[in-house]
Each structure stands twice: as structure tokens, then as C-alpha cells.
Amino acid sequence: MKLMRFNQPDLWAVSPIERMSSLRDQINRLFEAPFGELARAGEFFNGWAPALDLREDKENLVASIELPGLKKEQIDVSVHDGVLSVAGERADESSNQEATCYRTERFYGRFHRTLTLPKPVKVDAIKATYKDGILTVTLPKTEEAKPKQITVNVG
Fold first, then answer.
1. pLDDT in tens, 51-71
2. How confident is the model at residue 75 (pLDDT cuts 50, 70, 90)?
3. Predicted TM-score of the model (pTM)
4. Cβ atoms of 85 and 94 closer than 8 Å
């Protein structure tokens, strides 16, 4: 048996907002786990939620949202008070309503995703593009949110 020394994680390297966001995600997973099937069944009544990724580079936050089968006119994107909102509706394409359905895995109806942004962004410079079913929202960070290089002087 090999003993390993416990290293306390460096909490100063992560901002308080990122820690709270991570905590919220963990709590959500905790409550969904025992009721997995019931939580997924609730999507039928509350709409559906497209998959969303959020990345950060030096200059921007970039959100990518999977919205296959939608037209850009069916998608609403907004940012208000540091919260990104993406909403829209996918119409049911069933041409024969009298047909017996054996399996339905695709979601239809209204959707609404909101995401609290971890850093302040320049609202006037946000760009959204939609290609091949992927909505990409580029949110330029404010100057205060960008990392700063500090010069060390030798005295």
C-alpha cells in the first residue's frame, strides 16, 4: 500500500464566482442523480434544453449551443446583467399525426437556456453566428476582466 500526501487545492487560483458556479453545478447533479428518469421526464413538460459549452480565452468568452434543425429566425439571444439567454422553439415535424410512434428521442417545443457569465463582457461588441446547427456567441471581455501582466522591478 502506497501512502500519498494530501495537497490542499489552491483556492486562490479560482475566483469566488467560479467556485459558486461549480458548487451550483454539483448541487444540481446531486439532486438530479437519484431522480434521473423523473428529471428527464420533466423536460417533456418544461420544454427542452440544448447542450451548451462555455470556453474562455484571453480576449473572449465563447458559448457554443447545439440547435440542429432550427433556422436563425427561430433563435433569440440576449445578454442582461451578466446573464446570457438563448431561447427559441423547434416545431414538431411529424407529417402523419395518425401514425403510431414507436420511439421518440428528439425534443420539440420551446427551449430557454440561461447562463450566468463568469466575467464581465462588452455587451455592445457581442457577436452571434449560426452554422451547421451550432450557435456560437462570442462575448468580448471588458478590460478589467482580461488578465494583466505585471512587470517585476529589481530594486
1. 999 999 999 999 999 999 899
2. very high
3. 0.65
4. no
Residues in the chain: 155
Fold of the domain spanning 50-94+104-145? Immunoglobulin-like (2.60.40)
- DSSP string covering the chain: ----------GGGS-HHHHHHHHHHHHHHHHHSTTHHHHHHHHHHH-B---EEEEE-SSEEEEEEE-TT--GGGEEEEEETTEEEEEEEE----S-TTSPPS---S--EEEEEEEE-SS-B-GGG-EEEEETTEEEEEEEBPGGGS----PPPP-
**Contact present, 109 and 43 (Cβ < 8 Å):** no
